[in-house]
Design a protein that fits this description.
Layout: H1 4-17, E1 33-34, E2 42-43, E3 51-54, H2 56-62, H3 67-71, E4 77-81, E5 89-93, E6 101-105, E7 108-109, E8 128-135, H4 139-142, E9 149-155, E10 161-171, E11 175-185, E12 189-200, E13 226-238, E14 243-257, E15 267-284, E16 287-303, E17 314-333, E18 337-352, E19 357-358, E20 363-364, E21 367-381, E22 384-395, E23 399-412, E24 416-427, H5 431-435, E25 447-459, E26 463-480, E27 486-505, E28 508-521, E29 538-548, E30 551-560, E31 563-564, E32 572-573, E33 576-586, E34 591-598, E35 617-627
Parallel strand pairs: 6-9
Antiparallel strand pairs: 1-2, 3-8, 4-5, 6-7, 8-9, 10-11, 10-35, 11-12, 12-13, 13-14, 14-15, 15-16, 16-17, 17-18, 18-21, 19-20, 21-22, 22-23, 23-24, 24-25, 25-26, 26-27, 27-28, 28-29, 29-30, 30-33, 31-32, 33-34, 34-35
Length: about 625
């Protein structure tokens, strides 16, 4: 059950750590380069947009077994999950909608064109090299979806020399895991490949009652398993000193059991596939031209009680494909000024057992194109920084849409930095919104947003801290009208505060972050000024790690305040706090043993009404890593 005392202790601990703090990674990593907030290389501490970096070292140290576990509690991020590992999971940034988050994998836009969501639960952490999180709108660089922010995932790649790794693991609920791969980097080229396997018997995902027609509309008190098999390959070669070609491919094939009925199914095969290649030409130190093409596929096949033995139990198929191409030029003027311009093309295509039809003209619709052009300026004037960008997107469905961003920063004595960012964003309606049979509306317009963000941070040699306050206003939010059809009827106002920080103190690596979000419904009517559904107003995360010779210990505390499961704010889900412990022992320079205990106090909680979450869990892994 929820403990107010445990959550208040966690919040107090995080608050005590924050005077040392800012971005949630070790302070010595601030020279790391990030690219997502500008589409160009920028040192992390020079980013005007609030940006967080999660490295491979941190991923391995955390022993997270899912992307949701790795991201939860990060500044500005909220999440929901429908019953444990592998179950449908949604993330939001700064209280916006879950489809207001743009997700990229190695620069390629992913997500379902029908549902509008990225399948976070099916992206295996064993295939991830690093993650960049940008908070705030970035539609002026990427177009649709980037209202709340952008999450970019970089997969494993080759390194200098030869490296090999292997991991075998197991844990509660009959968890079985295995992963391995190699990477090689030579004088002109590199190649790497990683494979991963994860399977669990799971927990009873939903405590719904078929009699009451609540929760998942059925009562199946059984364990709901999950299996994921993935492969990632990356390679690149410097054709000349100025020309580099690289390619990547990620395939994650998942099987998922869930609680459902013959009408909606209770088993699914899901496939996430990302293919891409990039050609970079750098004819001079001042000029870089980049061309990139990619394809992202999101495939879902739902059925009831094993369709292979009963074809009539086959429920539905939704296969969406996103083909993208981009061309970008970066032109430096001296050391202090950079001008970037580019064009992006995207085609969304749907193959489904459901016929998508534009009811206004009565014709089938399974494809649409979008072309975006943008220009961006980055400059320094003494202690000041400026970033300005503007973009126009021309979409088959809604025509032209213009967005912009303006950022300003001022560095002053003692390592302090003040930043101000203002930007607009938009979200194009999905195929489900527009054309789903009997419940689509082809007259929908894009959702639109305006955001203002003010930040203050300070960087020291072994510590850094930062605070950001923001307000986002969203218009034309898509919601169901009185006829149960989607319409641009809602508005929202979201205000928030984020505190982030890191310090290395007496051998302890401490990272802390607290987020306060006030997401309000500003639609005239009975729900005016209610909190938006399924958002916790307050979250906190504290990570502490310490090495003692061949041993390394760590702890992660996470807490979230209460939330409401519906727009009327009549269904209240209690807040909660969890504590995770981890231990690592270096057997040799190449072999190590990892052990973890999650939710050690066995807290019971829900992020969506009726959907269970795992209690206390244990895990053990044997890891091999070698490099020549």
């Amino acid at each position: 059950m929820y403990s107010r005392h445990s959550l208040s202790l966690l919040t107090t601990a995080v608050a005590l750590a924050l005077p040392f703090a800012a971005h949630a990674q070790n302070a010595t990593d601030l020279d790391e380069v990030v690219v997502t907030g500008t589409r160009t290389d920028v040192a992390l501490q020079d980013s005007l947009a609030p940006t967080q970096l999660i490295t491979r070292e941190e991923i391995e140290r955390s022993q997270s077994r899912s992307l949701v576990d790795l991201l939860k509690g990060r500044a500005g991020i909220g999440f929901t999950n429908q019953g444990g590992l592998g179950k449908l999971s949604s993330l939001n940034i700064r209280g916006t909608e879950s489809d207001h988050v743009l997700v990229l994998v190695d620069g390629i836009r992913i997500g379902s064109a029908t549902a509008g969501l990225a399948s976070f639960q099916d992206l295996p952490v064993d295939q991830i090299e690093r993650i960049e999180i940008v908070r705030g709108p970035r539609s002026s660089l990427y177009g649709s979806e980037a209202i709340g922010g952008v999450i970019q995932i970089f997969t494993r790649r080759g390194t200098q020399g030869l490296s090999r790794e292997l991991r075998l693991g197991g844990g509660s609920h009959n968890l079985r895991e295995a992963s391995g791969g190699f990477a090689y980097g030579g004088e002109r080229g590199w190649i790497g490949a990683n494979a991963a396997y994860q399977e669990t018997d799971g927990i009873n995902a939903c405590r719904g009652s078929g009699t009451l027609f609540q929760g998942c509309f059925t009562d199946e008190p059984d364990d709901d398993g999950y299996r994921n098999v993935s492969l990632n390959v990356r390679a690149g070669y410097r054709l000349t000193d100025a020309l580099t070609l690289e390619g990547h491919a990620l395939n994650a094939d998942a099987f998922n059991e869930f609680d459902g009925s013959i009408y909606g199914g209770n088993e699914a095969d899901n496939v996430q596939q990302v293919l891409g290649s990039k050609l970079t030409w750098k004819p001079s130190a001042a000029t870089t031209l980049t061309a990139q093409v990619g394809r992202a596929s999101d495939k879902s096949h739902n059925y009831y009680n094993d369709a292979s033995s009963s074809p009539s139990a086959d429920i539905s198929t939704f296969d969406t494909r996103r083909d993208t191409a981009s061309l970008q030029g970066d032109f430096a003027f001296g050391e202090q000024h950079l001008l970037s311009a580019g064009a992006d093309w995207q085609r969304d295509e749907v193959t489904s057992s459901v016929d998508f039809v534009n009811d206004t003209v009565g014709v089938p619709v399974n494809r649409r194109d979008n072309t975006g052009v943008f220009i961006e300026y980055q400059g320094r004037f003494g202690a000041q920084q400026v970033q300005a960008s503007v973009r126009n997107d021309d979409n088959d469905q809604f025509g032209n849409h213009v967005t912009g961003n303006l950022g300003w920063g001022l560095g002053f004595g003692g390592g302090f930095k003040l930043t101000v960012n203002a930007g607009t964003g938009f979200k194009a309606p999905t195929f489900n919104d527009l054309y789903y049979p009997f419940s689509g509306n082809a007259l929908l317009e894009p959702e639109r947003s305006k955001t203002l963000d003010i930040g203050l941070s300070q960087y020291g040699d072994a510590w850094n801290w930062g605070v950001n306050v923001y307000e986002t206003r969203i218009k034309d939010l898509i919601a169901l009208d009185s006829n149960w059809l989607p319409a641009n009827t809602d508005e929202a106002r979201i205000r928030g505060l984020e505190l982030t920080g890191a310090v290395t103190l007496a051998g302890f690596d401490i990272a802390a972050q607290v987020s306060h979000t006030d997401p309000r419904n500003h639609t005239a009517g009975a729900n005016y000024d209610n909190l938006l559904a399924r958002r916790a107003r307050n979250t906190a995360r504290l990570d502490v790690d310490r090495s003692f010779g061949d041993f390394r210990i760590g702890v992660t505390g996470y807490g979230a305040s209460h939330r409401y499961d519906n727009a009327a704010n009549s269904v209240r889900l209690a807040g909660y706090g969890t504590l995770d412990l981890r231990l690592e022992y270096a057997i040799t320079d190449e072999w190590s043993l990892q052990a973890r205990a999650s939710n050690v106090f066995d807290r019971e909680y829900e992020t969506i009404a009726w959907y269970n979450q795992p209690g206390r869990e244990y895990g053990l892994s044997l890891r091999y890593s070698a490099r020549d």
